[in-house]
From TrEMBL:
Keyword DNA-binding listed: yes
SUPFAM superfamilies: Periplasmic binding protein-like II, Winged helix' DNA-binding domain
GO molecular function, one term: transcription cis-regulatory region binding
Name assigned to this protein: LysR family transcriptional regulator
InterPro entries: LysR_HTH_N (IPR000847), LysR_subst-bd (IPR005119), WH-like_DNA-bd_sf (IPR036388), WH_DNA-bd_sf (IPR036390)
Assigned protein family: Belongs to the LysR transcriptional regulatory family.
Keywords tagged on the record: DNA-binding, Transcription, Transcription regulation
Phylogenetic placement of the source organism: Bacteria, Pseudomonadati, Pseudomonadota, Betaproteobacteria, Burkholderiales
Residue intervals of the HTH lysR-type domain: 1-58
Length: 299
């Protein structure tokens, strides 16, 4: 029995498909199947019940999975102690929200490439729910999104926060500077969809103010939200740095009577059962790079 066979068994059992497990291990599906077959030959029994459409764990496979996890965790601990002399290599897939991708993600990738040149970085941009699903399914190694995860299988570590301001175009609201929060009832709220972590702070704000919008206009992209606000289609929040740029240009105005929403905490997340040294290294880099005050890609 080899460590590679145990890895094949563990990831095949915990990823959504053999294809995802193989991709995570940087091998082909046929190689994954070969390792599984070799392990089953050593054990003398099947670990998966295979059908034409899928493969599920046998009772023995279910019984052995926690032990495989413990063995791999011990191997990870061994590698962690040797991390200073063993450079990170292979593929690193991570997911971020659009706000991170348009501000500090390029710097994060640059730092990863400089410090770990043998690591192939593959970023993915999506709303928080999509990133969490990618983590659970085994498609992503880690994610950086707004708010802690509510999923028991995912670990979240706080790394920073983003601040926001209420804005509207001069044509969307007369005397926008003096518009009271209660006026939201007469306007359209332009915002990200409910699957975004940003909506949590908007909902908390509306609850605190005791108001709700007359209408909602939702889109899953910050660029589109900013564009619709500039076109006067409603009022909404934007990251503070971006809002200031657009206000200075005269394209938007701050709603000065609207209290600023609470900052949104950002966390780095990974599967609780994943103890590879890679994740501690990425967490340290993310904490060093995170900065939402530079609108490098929006304007």
């Amino acid at each position: 029995m080899t460590l590679k066979q145990l890895e094949a068994f563990y990831w095949a059992a915990t990823c959504r498909s053999f294809a995802i497990a193989a991709s995570r291990l940087n091998i082909s599906v046929s190689s994954l199947s070969k390792r599984l077959a070799e392990l089953e030959s050593v054990i003398g029994s099947e670990l998966f019940s295979r059908s034409a459409r899928n493969a599920i764990l046998t009772p023995l496979g279910e019984q052995l999975l926690p032990h495989a996890r413990d063995l791999l965790r011990s191997a990870d601990d061994f590698l962690q102690r040797a991390a200073d002399s063993v450079p990170l290599a292979g593929r690193c897939r991570f997911g971020v929200g659009e706000l991170s991708s348009m501000t500090w993600m390029p710097r994060l990738i640059a730092d990863i490439r400089r410090e770990y040149p043998n690591l192939l970085v593959e970023p993915r941009v999506g709303v928080g729910e999509e990133v969490e699903l990618g983590l659970e399914d085994g498609e992503l190694d880690f994610g950086i999104i707004g708010g802690p995860s509510t999923r028991a299988s995912i670990t979240s570590v706080l790394i920073g926060q983003a601040e926001f301001e209420w804005v509207a175009s001069p044509g969307a609201a007369r005397d926008a500077r003096w518009l009271p929060p209660a006026a939201l009832r007469d306007h359209t709220l332009v915002a990200l969809p409910n699957s975004s972590g940003v909506i949590r702070i908007v909902d908390d704000w509306m609850t605190a103010q005791g108001v709700s919008p007359g209408r909602n206009l939702r889109c899953n992209g910050w660029g589109a939200v900013a564009g619709m606000l500039r076109e006067g289609l409603g009022i909404g929040i934007l990251p503070t740095a971006w809002a200031r740029v657009l206000v200075e240009r005269g394209e938007l105005a701050f709603l000065e009577q609207f209290p600023a929403p609470q900052p949104l905490s950002y966390t780095i997340q990974w599967r609780r059962d994943d103890t590879r040294p890679l994740l501690a290294c990425m967490r340290d880099l993310a904490q060093r790079c995170i900065d939402f005050h530079a609108p490098c890609c929006l304007m």
